[in-house]
Structure formats: C-alpha cells, structure tokens
UniProtKB/TrEMBL annotation:
Catalyzes the ATP-dependent phosphorylation of L-homoserine to L-homoserine phosphate. Keywords: Amino-acid biosynthesis, ATP-binding, Cytoplasm, Kinase, Nucleotide-binding, Threonine biosynthesis, Transferase. Belongs to the GHMP kinase family. Homoserine kinase subfamily. GO terms for molecular function: ATP binding; homoserine kinase activity. Residues 69-126 form the GHMP kinase N-terminal domain. PANTHER family: HOMOSERINE KINASE, HOMOSERINE/4-DIPHOSPHOCYTIDYL-2-C-METHYL-D-ERYTHRITOL KINASE. ATP binds at P98, H99, A100, R101, G102, L103, G104, S105, S106, S107, A108. Residues 128-148 are annotated as: Disordered. GO terms for biological process: threonine biosynthetic process. Its EC number is 2.7.1.39. This is Homoserine kinase. Residues 249-303 form the GHMP kinase C-terminal domain.
Length: 333
C-alpha cells in the first residue's frame, strides 16, 4: 500500500535576537530539517493512525503520535483552512537542527507542519469519518471547500503557535529579518539580505535549555537606559550586517542588555564563552534563547575561535540561508 499523496518540505535553522534585537531580529542558517508527509489511502490498514519515523535529532525521544509538534501543527492548520482532518498521517523526519539549543528547531517544525498541510490541501485526501482525536471536522476530503491560505496566514499561524515571530520570520523567508507584531497581534516582517562577508559560526554545546525556561528568567521591567542602549545597538546591527560588516561595528552592534545577562545563570558556560570571545574582539552573542552561541567571524578573527572554545563544543560555520522554507516535492508553490 502507498500513501495517496506525499509532500516534502525543507526548513532552515534560525538564530534569533542576534544580541540586542530581542524577539525581533533573526537570521536563517543553511542547516535544514526535511520532512516528508504522506496521507494514507483509505484502504490501507494504517489509515487510522499516525506513523512517525525520525532520523537524527530527537530520534527515540519525541512523541510518536498525535502529540508530535508537526502533527499537532498540521491538525491546527487543516482546521484553520476550513478542511476536515485527514485520517492516517505518515511523517518521515530527517532532523539536523539541534533541539532546545537556540537554533530555532521548534519554529522549523511548526513551519514544516503548516507548509506541508497547505501543500496537501490542494489534493483530495481521505478524511476522518468518525471521532477525530484532534477534534477536527468529520467528512470526506473537500479540497474545493478550502479557504485560501496565504503566506501571511502561514506567518500568522506559525507566530501564534511559537509565541513570537523572530525565528518564524527568517525560517519562512530566509535571510535577515526584522519582525514585529502590531496592535492586533498580527506579525509583520522585513527581509534583508546580509552582506556577503557575514560569516556566522554556531558554537553548540551538548546540553539543552528550553526556551520556556530561558524566558522565565526575564524581568518584567528593565531600566530605560538599557532599553535605549538596545534600540541603538539593534539599529546599528542591521546596518553592520547588511552594509558595513566591519568587526569593530559588529562588536559594538552585538551588545545586549535586555536578556543575555538575565539568562546567564541558566547557561553559565555560554555566558562565559561569549565574554571571552568578545574580549578577543570576536562579535559574539547568545543564539536565540541559548545555550548555543553565535559568532560573526571575519578574516582577522576566524583563527581565534577554535583555540578559545576548546573541545566541549561543536563549532559549526554556517552559510546564511536566503531562500527560506520551501516545499521541495512536489513543487506546488
Ligand atoms: N523537528 C521536530 N519535531 C518535533 N518536535 C520538535 C522538533 N524540533 C523541536 N521540537 C520540539 O521543540 C522543543 C525545542 O523547542 P525550544 O523552543 O525549547 O527550542 P529551540 O526552538 O530549539 O530554540 P530557540 O527557540 O531558542 O531557537 C524540542 O524539545 C521538541 O519538543
Ligand atoms: N526571542 C526568543 C527566541 C527564542 O525562541 C527568546 O529569546 O526567548
């Protein structure tokens, strides 16, 4: 028996905040998860179940049923598109983005689920005809009934699930993104292409830190002087990353006072390494909610990183990814 329809999506890792741009700036990195999603033929004995195969990150650890983040996201997307829930869902995940390290793994999974569901909605599929575990509508697949689901809808839903737009924006669009939400909580973004001299290096520890825990360490209020310093640095950082990728500017532009110090107790080794690399003149920040750190290497600093970092961390130079998440097969959009 075969899956009645199948799509494959590819989603990049991302680094959010980039120092001063808390919950706003994000950079897409050329490290990808690939997810093949199949909807099962009605006659197939697997058609009433969820089947998940994970290779790489999270193998043997993640929920292998309705609780899997991609499945939950797909279910919600089918609901939002006004479509009935598909019956059997098969996922084959090739996970390369480390989990809970500050490289946007949850955003990547969420974007993968939404894009896969949108791509699958274009074809007939067998839908649930009995009680649906995710609470979806029963009935046969009715692609004609679907509501148009635009790229803005994808961005809005991914941001709603993730809680903030700074990883979601670069994951979907690629490049360097400035993301914000308006008064009605709708997310928006501007995408920029970083200067070709920008060379990100992810320095990844073995241990994890969940975003939830890291966000729990932030104070409710911050001094006005710190907010003002960050506003200036974030503006400078956009200029440095796109037009003036000079080490001195990048070093000044990556200073943060809004989140990194508050979170340091949860990631003392990361905080220490950021300080040491910055002391050597390497522009370095905590990536997302940590504990990975991100350095912007230049010709004059690239040789400084490895000796300072030592062997406890994985040093991974990564190109900036400029295309963003995509459906690679079939090429539907
Ligand atoms: N490919 C995936 N498939 C299923 N679940 C995933 C996947 N990627 C991430 N997750 C879930 O998301 C959790 C990690 O999310 P979390 O927000 O804590 O970190 P992150 O997204 O890796 O980092 P950050 O948001 O700081 O960049 C994992 O522990 C797992 O539960
Ligand atoms: N801006 C987010 C990124 C991690 O998801 C944070 O720092 O909490």
């Amino acid at each position: 028996m075969t899956d009645s329809i199948k799509v494959t999506v590819r989603v990049p890792a991302t680094s959010a905040n980039l120092g001063p741009g808390f919950d706003t700036l994000g950079l897409a990195l050329a490290l990808y998860d690939e997810v093949e999603v199949g909807l099962v033929d009605p006659g197939d004995p697997r058609s009433r179940s969820v089947g998940i195969e994970v290779t790489g990150e999270g193998a043997g650890e993640l929920d292998d049923g309705e609780g899997h983040l991609i499945v939950k996201t797909m279910r919600l997307t089918f609901d939002r598109m006004g479509l009935p829930q598909p019956r059997g869902i098969r996922l084959r995940c090739l996970n390369r983005i480390p989990h809970a390290r500050g490289l946007g793994s949850s955003s990547a999974a969420i974007c993968a689920g939404i894009l896969a569901a949108r791509a699958l909605a274009g074809a007939p599929y067998p839908a649930v005809d009995g009680p649906d575990p995710a609470g979806g509508q029963a009935g046969p697949g009715r692609p004609g009934a679907r509501r148009e689901f635009t790229d803005d809808d994808v961005f809005a839903l991914a941001t709603e699930i993730e809680g903030h737009p700074d990883n979601v924006a670069p994951c979907l669009a690629g490049g360097l993104t400035i993301a914000w939400t308006d008064q009605s909580n709708a997310p928006h973004m501007v995408k920029l292409i970083p200067h070709a001299d920008i060379r990100p290096v992810a320095i990844i520890p073995r241990h994890r830190l969940s975003t939830e825990v890291a966000r729990g360490l932030l104070p409710k209020d911050v001094p006005h002087s710190d907010a003002s310093a960050n506003a200036g640095r974030a503006a400078l950082l956009v200029a440095a990353l796109t037009e003036r990728p000079e080490r001195e500017l990048l070093l000044a532009a990556t200073e943060d006072r809004l989140h990194q110090n508050y979170r340091a107790p949860a990631m003392p080794q990361s905080a220490d390494l950021v300080q040491r690399l910055r002391g050597l003149g390497v522009p370095t920040v905590v990536s997302g909610a940590g504990p990975t750190i991100l350095a912007f290497s230049t010709v004059d600093t690239q040789d400084l990183i490895a000796p300072e970092v030592g062997t406890d961390w994985h040093i991974q130079p990564l190109d900036v990814e400029t295309r963003g998440a995509c459906v690679v097969s079939p090429e539907t959009r």
